């Protein structure tokens, strides 16, 4: 039986990874800021982190904070993993972080570099955005009478449960470096995804596409965050909405 630590283990993805691994009979420790007995703020590190990684074979690093601090968190985690002799560090990343000059993506790319240079055995999986993210985004955008969307942008949402299955598989295998990207089954316009959301929720909103500006927007508009050649996901956005809405 393998002992595995899942950081961000109470989040959307980490919770699912934890469930998969425990179902296979593995001992899984959940690390998050508020989950006992391993309640640790990775941005600060400390003795609690050392205790969490002691005796661990593999770490699945799902914790992330879009507001900042991911690099500090990764540095603390890597240092603790080295000290504890962890065999394998698995990291979930995002498709296109090296092609789209967007602040959060730059941070994710920097974390990848830290992991690659850590001296640990490592695996990095990049995926497209989860269905959950679009659900939250459209929930916010539909609060106004007119739903404003970035013009010319497409997306390729993927089912978080499928990503969790893949991460669990990678965690139980040997370190593999950067593995093939994982994208959702369809590349869709933002307009079509928004209309699917409105139909599922029964909301009546005008949908207007608005041109934006900046390098990040140009990166998204050019499709840098998409991976049409790796459309390996099965669950569609409509199927997801049918379960959640």
From TrEMBL:
PANTHER family: PRESTALK A DIFFERENTIATION PROTEIN A, PTHR43162. It holds the Pfam family NAD_binding_10. It comes from Streptomyces regalis. Residues 8-132 form the NAD(P)-binding domain. This is Nucleoside-diphosphate sugar epimerase. InterPro entries: Ergot_Alk_Oxidoreductase, NAD(P)-bd_dom, NAD(P)-bd_dom_sf.
């Amino acid at each position: 039986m393998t002992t595995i630590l899942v950081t961000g283990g109470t989040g959307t993805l980490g919770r699912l990874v934890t469930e998969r691994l425990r179902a296979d009979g593995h001992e899984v420790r959940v690390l998050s800021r508020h989950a006992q007995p391993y309640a640790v703020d990775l941005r600060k590190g400390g003795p609690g982190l050392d205790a969490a990684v002691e005796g661990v074979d593999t770490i699945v690093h799902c914790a992330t904070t879009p507001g900042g601090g991911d690099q500090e968190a990764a540095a603390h985690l890597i240092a603790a993993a080295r000290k504890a002799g962890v065999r394998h560090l698995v990291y979930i990343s995002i498709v296109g972080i090296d092609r789209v000059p967007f602040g959060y993506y730059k941070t994710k790319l920097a974390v990848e570099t830290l992991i690659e240079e850590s001296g640990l055995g490592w695996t990095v999986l990049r995926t497209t955005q989860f269905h959950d993210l679009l659900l939250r985004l459209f929930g916010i955008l539909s609060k106004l009478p007119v739903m404003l969307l970035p013009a010319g942008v497409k997306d390729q949402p993927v089912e978080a449960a499928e990503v969790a299955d893949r991460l669990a598989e990678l965690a139980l295998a040997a370190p593999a470096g950067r593995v093939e990207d994982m994208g959702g089954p369809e590349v869709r316009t933002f307009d079509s995804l928004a209309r699917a959301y409105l139909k599922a929720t029964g909301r009546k909103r005008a949908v207007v596409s608005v041109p934006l500006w900046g390098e990040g927007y140009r990166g998204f508009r050019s499709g840098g965050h998409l991976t049409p050649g790796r459309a390996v996901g099965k669950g569609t956005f409509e199927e997801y909405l049918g379960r959640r809405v």
